[in-house]
Amino acid sequence: MPLLVTHPAVKAGEPAGSPRQMMQVLVVHAEALKRQLETQQAERDNLRFQLRLLQRDKSERQPSWLEQQVAYLEAENRNSAAVQDESDRLARRLKAVEAALAELDAQPSKVKAAAEEAQVLEDEDDINLARWECRNVERRLEQARSYNRALMEDLCRKRNRDEPLEEASAEEDPEMADVVSQNTQTLRRLREEVATASRASAPQPPAEPRPNARGRATRGGASVDVLTIGVGPGGGDVEWHKDASTSRQ
Q1: CA–CA separation, 24 vs 9, rounded Å?
Q2: Exposure letters 35-50 (e unless 16+ CB within 10 A, then b)
Q3: 111-148: per-residue pLDDT in tens?
Q4: Which positions ≥6 away from 196 have C-beta within 8 Å?
Q5: At what angle do helices 108-172 and 174-201 cross, to 10 degrees?
Q6: So where are the chain's domains?
């Protein structure tokens, strides 16, 4: 590329070949060289790109590269056949599903009957399970009632056995009498609570005889003829005396 240098006009009054004039000439030359350098760099980049293209074309003309491309094409052909087979299989399944749906739509009564039968079987299983659980609960309830009755009988026997001894010792010692009185009240209160809890938890079976105790003992200056347990108000005991009929709870 030819380098054209234009000499600036010499100002009037400046001698030819002065330093200012030479500086202007050098600046013009520098700008021209800079533009020429940029042009050469652009041409170099273009040549490098063309060289890469030529190298790729040369490598693609090699037998190894051609064999590799042939292998890729054969693999694609095999994959295409597999994809086509899968597509055909899915199409057949889709047709089968559509036919089944059409058959179900044409027979809604059969579908409803089958659903009702399945629901009946499921309900029957639930009913059997509920019956089994109910039997277990009834058996546990009966065991609890038997255990409660046994506790009440033991408590009554212990009370009837211990009360005469406690009252006899209470007549000898006033302090002991107070202790015995408190213990007796506590036992009666506990007996009432047990009876109340028993009635609240489960009703007693009909016609079941109540535990009772009969005997004679000296109590408060009166003779006890009959002691009936759990028949008084609040589940208390009733004592029938020989001299006068009085009720104690």
Answers
A1: 10
A2: eeeeeeeeeeeeeeee
A3: 566 667 777 777 788 888 888 888 888 888 888 888 88
A4: 234, 235
A5: 170
A6: 154-241
